[in-house]
């Protein structure tokens, strides 16, 4: 008899012995929340189950309890555990209404002493930072004075982003003007595309956990993209993360969040500037 809410993996119709109960799920929830701030809803138990059993098979562990003990002891498996639970839904020029705003912000950048700086804090597989780079090339032309730092907690997707190689169907619906920024594969690489060097060289990829106490990032950014990340955090974690963004912003910096995200509960930190675009709420003395 299986316990209530217990899952058991089957392979070729036979039980594989991987029972997954509420206690295991609570432990997974605690580990990923404490480390990455991700607040897994109770409805995500099946999703967690389907992703974590791959790691049980890969590591040869026999139970979820044994696997979770391994996670806490082995830094390499900890990284694989986090990678398996992070969601990486993305696309080129996703939420396209943000890009004309970014273009306008770039055109208003008149400080010739430094580049226009962008931080993309959820790189995923690279579509977002490369969309930012293509926007910069459209605005400034060749060798744009733009620096893009792109980070993510998931090291496996960062490797894909760094390679800049995608299935050709990923760019089918793009505005034709952007297709010139991709090289199409031939022979064994037919059906694939790679971003051109002038796009790739604008982006620097780095691993970063938004919950870390110290971020390996320096300086002020003109635009910060933290889109479709906050929905995975509870409000306390949202505040903790977004408070740490403010030192990277000046009076003209703009923070872009996802279409279903709102910072209205953080109106002491940010004020709405456009559709899911915010600016820093400076102290009165600083704002003049």
As a percent range, the share of strand residues is 15-25%
Biggest beta sheet summary: 7 strands, mixed
Question: Any low-confidence stretches, pLDDT <50, length ≥5?
Answer: 8-16
Order of helices and strands: EEHHHHHEHEHEEEHEEHEEEH
Distance between the termini: 70 Å
How many helices? The count is 10
How many beta-strand elements? 12
Walk me through what this model shows:
By secondary structure, the protein is α/β, with parallel strands linked by helices. The protein contains ten helices and twelve strands. The strands form three sheets. It has a seven-stranded mixed β-sheet with strand order 8-4-3-9-10-12-11, with helices on one face. Strand 9 (223-226), helix 9 (235-245) and strand 10 form a beta-alpha-beta unit. Helix 2 (45-59) packs antiparallel against helix 4 (75-85) and helix 3 crosses helix 4 (75-85). The protein is globular, with a radius of gyration of 21 Å.
Note the topology.
Layout: E1 7-11, E2 14-20, H1 22-36, H2 45-59, H3 64-73, H4 75-85, H5 98-107, E3 116-120, H6 127-140, E4 146-152, H7 155-163, E5 165-167, E6 182-184, E7 192-195, H8 197-200, E8 203-207, E9 223-226, H9 235-245, E10 254-257, E11 270-274, E12 277-280, H10 284-287
Parallel strand pairs: 3-4, 3-9, 4-8, 9-10
Antiparallel strand pairs: 1-2, 5-7, 6-7, 10-12, 11-12
Give a quick precis of the structure.
By secondary structure, this protein is of the alpha/beta class. It is built from 10 helices and 12 strands.
């Amino acid at each position: 008899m299986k316990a209530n809410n217990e899952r058991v993996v089957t392979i070729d119709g036979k039980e594989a012995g991987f029972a997954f109960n509420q206690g295991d799920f609570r432990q997974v929830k605690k580990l990923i929340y404490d480390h990455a701030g991700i607040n897994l809803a109770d409805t995500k138990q099946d999703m967690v189950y389907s992703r974590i059993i791959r790691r049980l098979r890969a590591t040869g562990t026999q139970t979820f309890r044994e696997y979770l003990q391994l996670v806490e002891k082995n830094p390499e498996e900890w990284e694989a555990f986090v990678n398996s639970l992070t969601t990486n839904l993305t696309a080129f020029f996703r939420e396209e209404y943000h890009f004309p705003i970014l273009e306008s912000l770039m055109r208003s950048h008149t400080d010739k002493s430094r580049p226009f700086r962008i931080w993309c804090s959820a790189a995923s597989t690279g579509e977002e930072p490369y969309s930012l780079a293509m926007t910069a090339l459209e605005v400034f032309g060749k060798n744009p004075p733009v620096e893009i730092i792109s980070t993510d907690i998931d090291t496996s997707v960062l490797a894909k982003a760094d390679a800049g190689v995608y299935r050709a169907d990923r760019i089918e619906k793009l505005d034709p003007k952007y297709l010139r920024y991709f090289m199409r594969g031939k022979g064994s690489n037919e059906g694939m595309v790679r971003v051109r060097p002038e796009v790739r060289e604008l982006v620097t990829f780095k691993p970063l956990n938004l919950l870390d106490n110290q971020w390996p990032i320096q300086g002020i950014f003109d635009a910060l993209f933290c889109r479709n990340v906050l929905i995975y955090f509870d409000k306390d974690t949202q505040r903790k993360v977004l408070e740490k963004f403010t030192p990277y912003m000046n009076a003209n910096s703009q923070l872009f969040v996802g279409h279903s995200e709102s910072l209205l509960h953080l109106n002491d930190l940010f004020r709405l500037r456009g559709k899911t675009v915010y600016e820093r709420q400076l102290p009165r003395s600083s704002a003049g």
